[in-house]
Amino acid sequence: MSNFISFFNELQTQNPHTKTKPMEHNSYSPFTQPIRCIVKLGGAAITCKNELEMINEEILQKVSEQLRQAMISSSEKPPGMDWSKRPGSSEICCNPDEFGDHSVMDYSRFIVVHGAGSFGHFQASISGVHKGQLDKPLVKAGFVATRISVTTLTLEIVRALAREGIPSIGMSPFSCGWITKERQISSADVSSVAKAIDSGFAPVLHGDAVLDEILGCTILSGDVIISHLAAYSKPKYVVFLTDVYGVYDRPPTESDAILLKEIAVSEDGSWSVVKPKLQNSIELTVASHDTTGGMKTKISEAAMIAKLGIDVYIVKAATSHSLRALSGDLRGGNIPDDWLGTVVRSST
Amino acid sequence: MSNFISFFNELQTQNPHTKTKPMEHNSYSPFTQPIRCIVKLGGAAITCKNELEMINEEILQKVSEQLRQAMISSSEKPPGMDWSKRPGSSEICCNPDEFGDHSVMDYSRFIVVHGAGSFGHFQASISGVHKGQLDKPLVKAGFVATRISVTTLTLEIVRALAREGIPSIGMSPFSCGWITKERQISSADVSSVAKAIDSGFAPVLHGDAVLDEILGCTILSGDVIISHLAAYSKPKYVVFLTDVYGVYDRPPTESDAILLKEIAVSEDGSWSVVKPKLQNSIELTVASHDTTGGMKTKISEAAMIAKLGIDVYIVKAATSHSLRALSGDLRGGNIPDDWLGTVVRSST
């Protein structure tokens, strides 16, 4: 994986304390009903690696379509909700007239969180926003530049979802007032996200530059946001959409890499591979993979969610496997043999 | 003025109760220091009327330049903070290397609020978002579409300011969790705006589609946001940048229209024209103007701010007059005879 992809995901690796508070510490949740699913749109999947600020339009469109299929039971595609012009076009994307007497559709409660991919990384890394020191002119400028880049991506994702008829609403963690303290989330009121969900919208959040009470500023990664939201909203399942089929025992570019299909997480947060049965110790091989792909971090975050009793599916975006994961087909029973991906679930 | 321009400003006229709570009701302000200025970038000034979603790039650039001159005492232009590509370009706008060992600059505390102009109006009016009924598919879609359109404009304004070296940060009222109750602001925590200001940023807010506790949803106009922010942050002055020289006694397109240079507001909120001395009653002529331009609403909002002891300048954007207003040159003493614009201030 390129540097572009890993930056917003790997910050936790640099500081192991970049964690959300676990659910057991939270007595109050503003979510009136449990939500169905939190989806991570991985930066590696929806943007073009190695090319600054380039969206993978084909994947984004397919991901949006699958999300719509998972959220709406009707086979009929609802009218689009992006009534704006695209750059360089004089026509609006979707026609409001299509709504006419369109009947009410029932949407499942989804939250979307996206990574940065080739947006935001360049601006954050060149200025060192994640390290703080907001009083430095370069860092302050980098903070501004990073937010411009990632909110550009957010807007495009919101628009892609809206074109599929998903009532998507962009909500930046910074604007929501989320703040960290030495990179740990210290204040992240989820009530406005809950109200958006209760009003029938699909909130779209993202890894963001945020204020930090000690450091001045830092980067809050999409994966940490998901852990935080999962703890409060107790989704039935969480899906990480990536650019590979799941978690492997070594970099998936290696020909003998083995896809880990099921990982069990025990109460103390330690995890082990249940399927397939592996001959060698997994820990070392995953650790070596981690230096390039942040997969150990991803498993750690997934394990923290799984500990709450929430199944996590890590799966390749825009495939039949991702559609099954998003639709909730994998819940409960066994994972079908023909499904490619990684399930992380509680062993208890 | 076209319909495009007036929609986000005129909603108060449709419902006279669309007001913010006056300052005397608020005991707590999260602003640690008073801010210097709140600036309204009028939709009519920064977008092209009658053309859907078209920015007036020349005016926006000039406005951004004047804001930079007003915010930074140094005559040297700081390096740009928009390190993203523009659509269709492979180059980033500004070069981070320019920061090198750039010294710390002192920025005055400004808040920017922009109107919608030709962004958002079409989407909001065709769906009736301002009237509520979010359970209707068309209204929900309109809510999504309106937010896509106005946040597109916000992003472009944030980028234009950042290119001038202003540390601008987009903050949507919806994402900030601001909520209305029958179109009155019922919950609009300004603490995240205050924190952004305290951290040295220039927050950029905008008229937005928001949730309403009774109606389901509505449009919160930029002018109401300014009144609310002014009550909490107590700026030294407020500037409304528009596409005409100020407030006239009749539509400024009429050849005998007279520019009202000074309006005094008494304690009960009533107002009268101090300069120039007018022969006819002003109330009727302004009222007739109001049906097309929302100027009575604008005076009412300005009067509410002036009542707090804050001078309000209504002035044509991107002129020498707007630069003097933004720079605070008009504060205290008399208004120079060669300054074109309208001052609204407390008579006490």
From TrEMBL, chains A, B:
Signal peptide: none annotated. Keywords: ATP-binding, Isoprene biosynthesis, Kinase, Nucleotide-binding, Transferase. InterPro entries: AceGlu_kinase-like_sf, Asp/Glu/Uridylate_kinase, Fosfomycin_R_FomA-type. The keyword ATP-binding applies. Its EC number is 2.7.4.26. The record marks K49 as: Transition state stabilizer. GO terms for cellular component: cytosol. ATP binds at G117, D243, G294, K298. Transmembrane segments: none annotated. Substrate binds at A116, H121, G222. The keyword Nucleotide-binding applies. One of its GO terms (biological process) is terpenoid biosynthetic process. GO terms for molecular function: ATP binding; isopentenyl phosphate kinase activity; kinase activity. It comes from the Eukaryota. It is an enzyme of class 2 (transferase). Pfam families: AA_kinase. It catalyses: isopentenyl phosphate + ATP = isopentenyl diphosphate + ADP. Residues 108-315 form the Aspartate/glutamate/uridylate kinase domain. Belongs to the isopentenyl phosphate kinase family. This is Isopentenyl phosphate kinase. It comes from Crotalaria pallida. The lineage of its organism: Eukaryota, Viridiplantae, Streptophyta, Embryophyta, Tracheophyta.
